[in-house]
Automatic annotation (TrEMBL):
Lineage: Bacteria, Pseudomonadati, Bacteroidota, Flavobacteriia, Flavobacteriales
Subcellular location: Membrane
Pfam families per the UniProt record, alphabetical: DUF423
Family, as annotated: Belongs to the UPF0382 family.
PANTHER family referenced in this protein's UniProt entry, alphabetically: TRANSMEMBRANE PROTEIN 256 (PTHR43461:SF1)
InterPro entries reported for this sequence: DUF423 (IPR006696)
GO cellular component: plasma membrane
The species this protein was found in: Arenibacter troitsensis
Protein's UniProt name: Uncharacterized membrane protein YgdD, TMEM256/DUF423 family
Segments forming a coiled coil: none
Length: 128
C-alpha cells in the first residue's frame, strides 16, 4: 500500500505540474478568468494532495484498514475533484459544458474531507 501511495503521489504531482503549465500557457487564451481560476484550483488541490500522499507513504505503514481507506479516499478524491474541474473548465470554454461532471466535483471533495477526517482520527486514536 505504501508503494501505491508513492506511485499515485508522484503521478498526481507530475500531472499537476504539467496541467499547471498547460493552464498557464495553452489555456490562458481560451479560458475566461473564472474558468482559469477553477482550473488553477484543481491543479492546487491536486498538488497539495499529491504531496500528502507522499508524506503519508513515508510516515505510515498503511497496513490498517483505516489507513488503507484513508489513502483510497485521497486517491479517488483527487481524481474526482481535480479532473472533473479540468473537464468542466475546458468543456465550458468550448461552449459544450459537460454537466454530468458538476455533481462529481463535490463527491471528490467529500472524499478528500473524509480522508482528512480519517487522518485526524488516526492521530487522536494514537493519543488514547
Amino acid at each position: 500500500m505504501v508503494l501505491i501511495a508513492h506511485i499515485m503521489g508522484s503521478l498526481y504531482g507530475l500531472l499537476a505540474v504539467v496541467f499547471g503549465a498547460f493552464g498557464a500557457h495553452a489555456l490562458k487564451k481560451s479560458l475566461n478568468e473564472q474558468q482559469l481560476k477553477s482550473f488553477e484550483t484543481g491543479v492546487k488541490y491536486q498538488m497539495y494532495h499529491a504531496i500528502l500522499l507522499l508524506v503519508l507513504g513515508f510516515n505510515f505503514n498503511l497496513e490498517t484498514a483505516l489507513e488503507r481507506f484513508m489513502i483510497y479516499c485521497f486517491i479517488i478524491g483527487i481524481f474526482l475533484f481535480s479532473f472533473s474541474i479540468y473537464g468542466l473548465s475546458i468543456s465550458a470554454a468550448k461552449g459544450r459544458k459537460i454537466r454530468i461532471l458538476g455533481p462529481i466535483t463535490p463527491l471528490g471533495g467529500l472524499l478528500l474531507v473524509i480522508g482528512w477526517a480519517l487522518l485526524l482520527y488516526s492521530f487522536i486514536q494514537n493519543l488514547v
